[in-house]
Amino acid sequence: MKRGVLFLGVLIILTLLVWNVYLVNENKRVVQEREEMQIKFNAREGDLDIARYDLLTTRDSIRILLKHMDSVPVIQRKF
Length: 79
Known about the structure:
Blueprint: H1 2-71
């Protein structure tokens, strides 16, 4: 009886140790995956900032171009 309880206790302790090692390794993997995803997110956020800047400068260029086109006389042709 005592042997069975002792064996069961040792088995539970070993199982908990293996489970603990598994969880530590899984945590390391998840942390590494999160860091990789953060790097990708930062890169995409940088791409969005560049695209946003390009859109703003394009908008400003179009405004300037339209302002200058309004001051240029248009030659109309009669057919």
